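We examine the record.

___
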Amino acid sequence: MGVIRFIKSAYSIIEAILAWIENAFASWLVPTLARLVFAGALLGYFWASAYTKLGEGLFGFLSLSVGAYVQIFPLAMERVGYDPTDLSFFHTLVAVAGTWAEFILPFLIVVGLLTRLAAFGMIGFVMVQSYVDIAGHHADAKTVGAWFDRVSDAPIADQRAFWLFLLTVLALRGAGPISLDRFFTGEMFRNLFWDHRST
């Protein structure tokens, strides 16, 4: 009986300490670390990917490279002989919007502006990206991977699951206190821009 009572007491103390840590840190540390991890691991990836889609010259962000259409619409490009001028306006609109999204949404997440909306947008982006990789680029079984298989390095099933988890944390928890979201919704912003007249 003494051992069981000791184990219960030790468990209660550990739970109390962990509850205190959670109350003190989780609300701000989790979303802040999620944005830091996103910046360190994924910002460069998405921006490099978007950069490869830009056309030449100053207005390359409006007139995308042929490679952009091959990356986004591989099967449609194959059908038109890799001539993007033969694609519909819809294809062009989606390609331009997708390229801009690859620049804008990660930036918004890193600075913490419209973070929840940007995270939801990135979740959709990663899901579409994964679908295109599998159905359009015919990713092989090793690249697609599978869960519960002892191998944890498949780019789609394994790595992107972590991306989606990270983005889900941001979509549900927001950006945290060190963010533009908090600035624009917080007391500091109200004090700077709202008239506080005494009555």
Observations:
- The two ends are 66 Å apart (CA to CA).
- The mean pLDDT is 90.
- The chain is about 70% helix and 0% strand.
- The first helix runs from residue 2 to 51.
